[in-house]
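hey so u asked for the seq, here:
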Amino acid sequence: MTLKADWVEIERLFHESVDLPVKERQALLASASASVRAEVESLLKTEDEAVFVARPDRLAADLLDQPSALSTSERIGKYQIESLITVGGMGEVYLARNQSGCPVALKILRRHLVASPQAVDRFQTEVRAASALDDLNIVTVYESGDSPAGLFLAMEWVEGPTFRQLMAAGAAEISDAIDWGEQAASALAAAHSADILHRDIKPENIILRKDGVVKILDFGLARLAGPVRIEPHSTGASGTISGTLSGTLLYMSPEILRGETASSASDVFSLGALFYELWTGRHPFAGETPLDVYEAIECRNVAAPSAMQPAIPLEIDSLILRMLDRDPALRPPAHEVRDVFSRFSART
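ran it, structure tokens below
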């Protein structure tokens, strides 16, 4: 099938499986091609995250099908499990306590996925990438290791809303959007200066800590050596795809959608889509179906953010449109994005 035809099939399978329990989803998707199945699973993961609070019954049903879910009586190394935070295709994230009683976020690679070389490689890549970064706006990694439950990654516990939750209230206040934008761009600039691409920038992966510090997390799709060629036919295990369609659809750059080379400019595009949504309350490529979104990213002319929010400064208006340019060479680097926001931050 052509890529466009794939998306027609993806759309159909998504709508048929979105309300099914895990085992019935798996049965429905079993006959699909690997690439189609992986993208449907990615969309289902995003949908599940969106209804996590509103529909805990779905989470409970899914956990019954996941033998690797841990109880509060278990210990992983020196960490005592306290509660489950979220479940993804790659594993679980728990709130745990270290020996001093301090909270940590504990990410566990599911036991049944440890045998998968791709899953292990993805997990170890996240460990190496996140451990290599020392920046206020990037979640700190404390340690990683192996345990009877599987591979684990102990990280800084960040309490506060995700950008997805912040966006649910509509467009942010100008002063907040400037502050948060500067911090998010600063984190991305730090990663890029270390030759690390995030490759999955989206609102769910950025948290506003209670003291106002922005934190970027989840480097599961990161790469350690600058621009890379995406591996076709490689299916990720975190609910997003590490092959031709890396990341979450709404925030994918056009070049990644086409299976071309990912670079730091791809992260900038994703951050630009997030900023657009943060400033205006609307996504630049919103559509009713995955196919609509795909075609919007490839073809739709993006309206200036100021057309919806006239209070947006013209320089930031122009900056966001440049970040969303379909030509990666015309997008500003992350450090330039940071500097533009920094200039406005100094005025407020």
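The CA atoms of residues 93 and 107 lie 4 Å apart. The beta strands are 75-76, 79-87, 91-97, 103-109, 141-147, 150-156, 206-208, 214-216.
lmk if thats what u needed
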